Amino acid sequence: MSDPWSHLADRTEEAYGPKTASPCWPRATALAARVDGPILDLGCGPGYALALFRRGVGIDSSPAMLAAARRRAPQAHLVLGDMRSLPFRPGAFAAAYSCLALIHLTKAELASLLVELHDLLQPGGPVTAVFFTGTGEKDTGFSPLDSRAVAHYAYYQPPELVGLFERAGFGSVAVEEDILHEPTHPSIPCLCVTARS
């Protein structure tokens, strides 16, 4: 099976890495500082956040992304798999994190994943996830870094995300607006969700 994300596995530093003005990295750093237990990184990509987590577990559908993550975060446990069917036991994780990966699920798939994720977290476990701001869903080319493949993108408004997380059983749901500064699109509005299981 082809890996459409392989074209980006070694090129994400320039647009999404920790040196960019991304809303993800300050939040990943804060999560790593306050959580000692295992942290699940959903759609871990090349492992930037996993490199911060002492007990990180990353799942991604791209072998190339996982190979990059293995180089960047050798201490992490990596799983080749689909976020829509998580192969973990209930209560396995102290926290969960996702940086602009859940946007590639349909909105119906996200609703199902959040229910499953709630069961995988220990009581009170924090969740941090970053989404794109907007409305609707579409299939379109990847980041301007590479247009050779098409991915699904879903866009959200704050009340929609609050409702999805709350219906899945999460509490203390908060949504903060932020900006992703990508080289070719310097101001992409994002929504950063924090919640507790």
Per-chain topology:
Elements: H1 13-16, H2 24-34, E1 39-42, E2 56-60, H3 63-72, E3 77-80, E4 95-99, H4 107-120, E5 126-133, E6 137-141, E7 150-156, H5 158-167, E8 171-182, E9 185-196
Parallel strand pairs: 1-2, 1-4, 2-3, 4-5, 5-7
Antiparallel strand pairs: 5-9, 6-7, 8-9
Helix content: 10-25%
Residue windows where pLDDT falls under 50 for at least 5 positions: none
The CATH superfamily is Vaccinia Virus protein VP39
Radius of gyration, whole Å: 15 Å
- The secondary-structure class comes to alpha/beta
CATH class label: Alpha Beta
Number of domain modules: 1
Essential attributes:
single chain; 197 residues; alpha/beta; Rossmann fold; nine-stranded mixed β-sheet
Give a written overview of the molecule:
With 197 residues, this protein is an alpha/beta fold. The chain has a single domain, classed as 3-Layer(aba) Sandwich (Rossmann fold). The chain has 5 helices and 9 strands; from the N terminus they run H-H-E-E-H-E-E-H-E-E-E-H-E-E. Strands 1, 2, 3, 4, 5, 6, 7, 8 and 9 form a 9-stranded mixed β-sheet that branches. The radius of gyration is 15 Å and the shape is globular. The model has no long low-confidence stretch (mean pLDDT 88).
What's a quick, concise take on this entry?
The chain is of the alpha/beta class and 197 residues long. It is 25% helix and 31% strand.
